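Internal tracking record. Fields below are filled automatically when a chain is submitted to the structure queue. Please do not edit lines marked as system-generated. If the sequence contains nonstandard residues, flag them in the REMARKS field before resubmitting.
Queue: standard
Priority: normal
Entity type: single polypeptide chain
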Amino acid sequence: MQKAQDIFSHKPYWAKRFGVSPHLPMTRGEMEELGWDSCDIVLITGDAYVDHPSFGMALIGRLLEAQGFRVGIISQPKWSDAEDFRRLGKPNLFFGVTGGNMDSMVNRYTSDRRIRSNDAYTPDGLPDRRPDRSVLVYSQRCREACPDVPIILGGIEASLRRIAHYDYWSDKVRRSVLIDSKADLLVFGNGERQVVEIAQRLARGESVDSLKGIRGTAHLVKAIPEGWQVVDSSTVDRPGKVSPHPDPYSEKPPCNEQDPVESFAGKKSERAVIRLPSFEEVSADAVLYAHASRVLHQETNPGNARALIQNHGGREVWLNPPPIPLTTEEMDRVYDLPYSRHPHPSYGEAKIPAFEMIRHSVTIMRGCFGGCTFCSITEHEGRIIQSRSEQSILKEIETIRDTSPAFTGVISDLGGPTANMYRLSCKSPEIEEKCRRLSCVFPGICKNLGTDHGPLISLYRKARNLPGIKKVLVASGLRYDLAVLSPEYVRELAAHHVGGYLKIAPEHTEEGPLSLMMKPGIGTYDKFKALFDKYSKEAKKEQYLIPYFIAAHPGTTDEDMLNLSLWLKRNGFRADQVQAFLPSPMALATAMYHTGKNPLHRISRRGGEIYVPRATLQRRLHKAFLRYHDPENWPLLREALMKMGRADLIGNGKHHLVPRYQPAGKGGVAKPFRTQHVRIEKGGKSWKK
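SYSTEM-GENERATED OUTPUT FOLLOWS
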């Protein structure tokens, strides 16, 4: 894989002489206390400013400070006009704009499109402190405030909306956010490499229009640059006959398949750009949308990804290949920057829920090679795992112990996007560089994947043995299909790192939806549970797994949800909170939801359709199956069971799913449920019961 310049090897900007700020300034008064007459860079964020590496703007801000730049932050500005965007004056280099740690629409609306009552990234959890589609609004206000200052978009909202994308909340395909925001440049993925190069080059006097070749960025072009070969996406992945999943255990695994864009001169062209169907085409044609989504996801490996281009009404959005992952040494230095690890003092005694949750947690890695189609982690952070060193992680734990007045000796989480992918990678760098698989663990664990949990076990042991550390918990999502390959890891986890309950996400029990999620079968969960129970008992601890499931995922039928509900009842699970599928921008499952096609296969105009539960009532029913024990859901479930010909599941016995009687005030008055006036369709005939 191409080697990138170390992000800490650049010559510091002259303003480094001002030293390190106790916290990045949010007012002119704070700037004056630091001796600044201006900011070089002003970061705009939809989140409260918490100077902690789990908050994106704090991490980027401190990294730019380490490069010598004077960085100010405008957090949750008033967006009715541009005045608040002038709070810190005109930045010398650029505005950096983000919606925050979450997409602003996901942050504000539930999967049922209802407005949430709180915002975890706002002081005291108050709602309505950021606009819908924050990056668009903030960018427009920045342009009004300082028309000649470059605007750089970043963060997850910009990252997942970098091309034409289906938007669940407006139920339509929207243009690239780069077009609608009128920004100069968009940074996607983890942005350290990109923002450092952008800042350094602008500081050297380059214009923002010249910043066209930076990996992990998107920009507009007027014409295809000279020397570039344009390849139509249909030659890379031609819509046609639906093909089966590749066999990862074949003699010639997908990692080694010949690249479809091989040589215009006998070897792979490094100056090939793939033309995706235009915004107008993917808006009007579901097949082309699914095709474009499939091609984009095949171009996410930094080792072999090619540039992409997509026309939007005559304007061309150019996406460079993803950034080169950070090295362990770079990761260590990023997390070792002088964060105060506290919210900005201006918030006083207000509690910021997201900070309260992560203040004593430690990030040990980034990325995920699981490829779950409903998840956007891979689209943002990539499939290649980036891990910190053991020494860096232990040092951060000691910092928390020694500096946090609220610390009680418990590290609340030692993890990342996935708890147990620390230091896991492909056994062969050459194969990894060529691989185009969407997942290293589906439909089975790739034989080229290293699955040694030894380094993670060593980290756990050293972390919990540090002086002053009473407990180190693991609360991040656990990939249990990997964990079962290391019984010693499961033993270590169960004996020392679970606080009574361990959250785990099988997501479903039925093969149909699981295959579209790219998740392992429920049998793998059973294997993990057997190990977990065995080692919990061995440690003389009463501990339980809390499984999470998704309702209404593309490919899920009412019968699938019924079977899941019966599994929950047999196993004694009563879910308190359930999640209906939320089509987040750019996820593969979102393409399934929008198009009814399966982008895990080649796309065909005939056949290949998948069932998608879209209707509000059906989504409610699927959620109700997960909460079969809630009397509020019994009327809906009874009606559904009758229609499905499963009235045998209505009754007061242990084998029934819902009872005949409805408690008063729980979805109806107290009275027995009778079925004699319900018409049932069965075997081509209909009769009354």
